[in-house]
Amino acid sequence: MPIIVNLDVMMARRKMSLNELSEKVDLTLSNLSILKTGKAKAIRFTTLDAICKALDCQPGDILEYREDVKEEA
Amino acid sequence: MSKSNNFVFQALNVVAWIIFIGLCIETGALLVNFVYSLFKPEVVHNLYQKLDLSQIYNLNKWAYFGLYGFILSISVLKAYLFYVVTELLSKLDLEEPFSISASGHITKISYITLSVGIISYIARQTAMGLTHYGFDTAPLGKFWADSKAFILMAAVLYVIASIFRRGVELQNENDLTV
Predict the structure, then answer these.
(1) CB B164 within 8 A of CB B127
(2) Residue B107 CB coordination number (10 Å)
(3) Residue A73 pLDDT more than 50?
């Protein structure tokens, strides 16, 4: 999918660990891991809202569209 | 999932196992019958269903083997059908029913049901054709009486299997929604 999730980049910028983010956004580690590794098929607005609030960023900082990325088999 | 539904599924599982065992016994009995009819035809009267096809055997050996082949293959397929049903019922998770395994089992059940229906239909037509040549195929009618019902059931099951396949995709998508 050409949508890239830059959650790890934002977490590194904010110096926040996955555990810390998991507690702040009230998501399980496995779900955050799915999102971080780009395996997620969809993201809820509520989740996006919580992540943006926790990382103090915009949705565009987390999600990026890149046309040249080929779909995984 | 409610307790009553769980109970219904457990009861269905038990019923499916009983039918499967019954069909296995029937298939075994028919096989024994077939072997005895070849090597010791005089004792066939004492065996399962008293299935004496010696009149057909005496008239035409190939008609006899053909009809017995139909009887045995239908019986084996019915037993296998219920084996797959028991597998499905024991593996079905009512909390998350849309799994690849359940979808595969239902698809398999629909194919086996269709095979039983088609073989029964061909067998019935063959038996009807043989009656014109003086063969007495009347006692065999019970083995392929419900061919159309099986074909209809296969069509319904195929539709359910297709819905299940879509359900698996939706459940997978739901699982990967964060």
Answers:
(1) no
(2) 17
(3) no
Q: Which residues of A fall below an 8 Å CB-CB distance to B?
A: 27, 31-32, 34-35, 39-44, 47
Domain with B60 in it: 3-177
Using CB atoms within 10 A of its CB, is residue B73 exposed (0-12), middle (13-18) or buried (19+)?
middle
pLDDT tens digit sequence for B139-153: 788 888 888 999 999
| Residue in chain B lying closest to A50 (CA) | B178
- 3-class SS string, B87-105: HHHHHCCCCCCCCHHHHHH
User: Residue A72 pLDDT more than 60?
Assistant: no
A47 vs B contacts (CB less than 8 Å): 178
Q: Helix, strand, or coil here: B109? A: helix
Specify the higher pLDDT residue, A20 or B94. Answer: A20
Chain B nearest-CA residue for A31: B178
Q: What domains, with CATH codes, occur in chain A?
A: 3-65 (1.10.260.40)
Gyration radius from chain A CA atoms:
12
Q: Distance of alpha carbon A73 from its chain centroid, rounded?
A: 21
The encoded tokens of residue A13 equal 């910028």
What is the value of ipTM here, to two decimals?
0.72
Q: Cβ A32–B177 below 8 Å, yes or no?
A: no
Number of structural domains chain B divides into = 1
